[in-house]
Amino acid sequence: MARPDLNLLFTLDVLLAEGSVARAARRLHLSPSAMSRALARLREATGDPLLVRAGRGLVASPRALELRDSISQLVHDAEAALRPAGKLDLGQLDRTFTLRASEGFVENFGASLLSRLAAEAPGVRLHFLHKLDKDSGPLRDGSVDLETGVVDKAIGPEVRAQALFRDRYVGVVRAGHPLSEGDITPARFAAASHVHVSRRDSDKGPIDDALAGMGLQRQIATTVGGFAAALALVRATDWVACVHERHTGALYTGMHSFALPVPIAPFTVSLLWHPRLDGDPAHRWLRGCVRGVCAEQRPAA
Predict the structure, then answer these.
(1) Spelled out in words, what is the top-level CATH class assigned to the domain 90-167+268-296?
(2) Domain at 169-265, CATH class
(3) What is the per-residue pLDDT across 242-277, written as a single tens digit (0 to 9) for each?
(4) Which contacts qualify for 151-155: CB closer than 8 Å, 24 or more apart?
């Protein structure tokens, strides 16, 4: 089945508004003969005469009268969709955004971000989701507006990314832990009991690989699925947790953190979104708010 010529919608809208082939032709900068041919195509497409002779003028058929309001709205919506976006009125913006992030982001940046949004756009709400994997599906299907994460091969190739901050792994122990004093050598670090964090039930990670290169192996006391659980255990034991310094800083407030004595490369945490939202003024504003808040927040002391 042939696809209809949608340009005819604009022609029909003008014809119904003017009720005259000649006036519609002038309005659309067409010749009367070209407009007559367009009317003939419209009659063929709809199976209706649309405009019929009545004395010296034309009158709309019942079918044309039935179509007039809906055609006018369709044309209005199409023109609005193709018009450049107007100036964003934050005071009138009423919208809910969904932001997906790994644990630590809300605890570290959530309060400042919500405070900024409330001050600039009181009608905006944020729905935070816990990020359990790197699947780009939620960004693609629109169920998630923004994500934070480390860009790697698991991220869909079409996803847009913008750096938020650099981060690194640090060790964390309870206040007064033996590792809170003195030099922390690789051997001393490896000999402590560790809480390993893995979302994929893996018993190895980059820290273990680095230690193995030195002929050392960590003593793993237990494995948990997230940083919050690891730090809760470490706060109440003599175990050690290795976490993201900036991303989880608020979770280890009051505890002792230290630089790892093994060569682990730092990494970049980025803001991720689907390209269909590139030009959305409200989404662009939200991205700026997230970047601003992350730039203001510094690592925990």
Answers:
(1) alpha beta
(2) alpha beta
(3) 999 999 999 999 999 999 999 999 999 999 999 888
(4) 151/268, 151/270, 151/272, 155/272
